[in-house]
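Could you join me in thinking about how sequence relates to backbone shape in a protein? Would you write everything just below, so we can both look at the same thing?
***
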Amino acid sequence: YFVFIILAIHNFSALQEGCPAVSISINVGELVEILLESDYWYFGRRITRNPEEKGIFPKAYVKLRECNVDR
């Protein structure tokens, strides 16, 4: 079982004109768990606020972060 955590490196507003209705906003420094991936978008949930809210956001706005998870 792998957990992919990424770090937002740019702000993304889901309220921008033309954004899909299933988008979520992310802010610089937020950690996001990736649930699904497409060519240009990730589907995931924010870890740092409202973790129950899920949605898509552009891949170019985040960076994969290495981490170890102990269970």
